[in-house]
Request: fold
Amino acid sequence: MASTPPEFDPQHMSQQMKDSAQQIWQAGLGAIAKAQEEGSKVYENLVKEGSPLQQTTQQAQTKLAQAAEKMSHLASQMGASANGQIDKLEHVFEDRVAKALKSMGLPTAQDLADLEARVALLEQQLAQARNTKD
Reply:
């Protein structure tokens, strides 16, 4: 009877398959353990690296808030300054218009107001004189 080579022996093949399955199982467990160990280290490293970034972000936010406050203050100052300049410009314009009207012989707003007051006084006096006649 001829003997079967060991690679074709069913018992030998079965044992090799069991051994391979066992090794694959152990390799899988080792990979999981390694991943857990490395995962913890990676997590710790990420936390360490993230801490300074968080501080940098907070500092940047503080600086942005300060810059926004300064810009708001500057805008307020510029607005007040612009209002002051506009007021001055209005007065200059009013003075020049008044001078131009005066040079043309036209009455000013004050002249008209004085005239209206005089007419009102005269109307009042006329009404009193009519009432005393009657």
About this structure: Residues 14-128 form one domain.
